[in-house]
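Let's practice the habit of predicting before peeking. Look at the sequence and jot down your guess about where helices and strands might fall. Then scroll down.
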Amino acid sequence: MGGGKAASLVIGPKEGYAAIVDKGESLCNASLIQIFALSTMAGCFIGFGALLSLTISGNIDGAIKCLGPGVGTWLFAALFPVNLLFILLSGCILYTGATFTCPSAWIEGKANIKSVIAVISVAWIGNIVGGFGFALLTEACGLNEGGVARLVIKVLKKKTGQNFGVIFLRGIGCNWLVCMAVFLQTLSNDMSGKYVGIFFPISCFVACGFEHYPANAYALPLAWLAGLKDEYKEDGLAGWDKILGLNLIPCSLGNLFAGVIIMSCGFSYFYGTLRTCPPPAIAAKMKGEQQEQSEIPRLAAVEEYMKQILAQQEMMRSQQRPAPGSPEDLAQRPDFPEGGNPAPAP
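Done guessing? Here is the structure:
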């Protein structure tokens, strides 16, 4: 009906990268105890999504026989992304996301390298503590049985049956997509948009068979627990030496490479300061100088975006104000009597 500029539900990629940098800065300024608690909780949330996928996909043998194994893969991939919705919207921390946000803050001069390494390391520990803890809870609840146990053991054999290099490369592919999910959900201002941004990259990496350290830190311990029971015990089933050496370690390194080199460096080159080599903030630190705030190149200023939003909101409020002289306008005047008629002009 009226004119005016509509408010966008999605911000641009420059603003999105600036928000990623702000997130990394806040993580690097947080206490390591808080980082550990948030990453442990994230490991548990990963367990919820993985258990949902295992429960459904592990109990559809009839459909798989009828329609082929693709239906099981599709269901697993479609259900799994719910855990990242829990994590990102609650502020919890995954090792994979931290390899993108924290190095980005360092490149742009918003954090120091020691804090970046500390956050990423503590997130790695917290994720496996949460994942293993939730695996123990799953076992204690009696949910690691039947189709769930059979499927997760199949997953264990598949994930520990490849060499170090293959798992490393699959880790790169995985975190490339996971960090894109983190980035895309940052661009949206509403929950439905955030879930769309999360769903497609996460379901893509699951269906393709890439390797995600936090997910494996739940699924592989769960398979190890299932393998301790007589009804699921198999000869040659991987123990902790193979779980770590053939999967979790190469997977973590691949995830780290994708987060730091592909995503942090890539997006800093696109929208930040990495086009200058070395970036101004890093160059100043190498020389032992204190960089002036005014010299720091602007990323994509989130504050400018917020000003635009406030301006749009003010414009919308102005359009809703009553026309001068209308009954609604007269009712808002301070000289308007409670009886209803305005006082006559002198």
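How did you do? The chain is about 70% helix and 0% strand.
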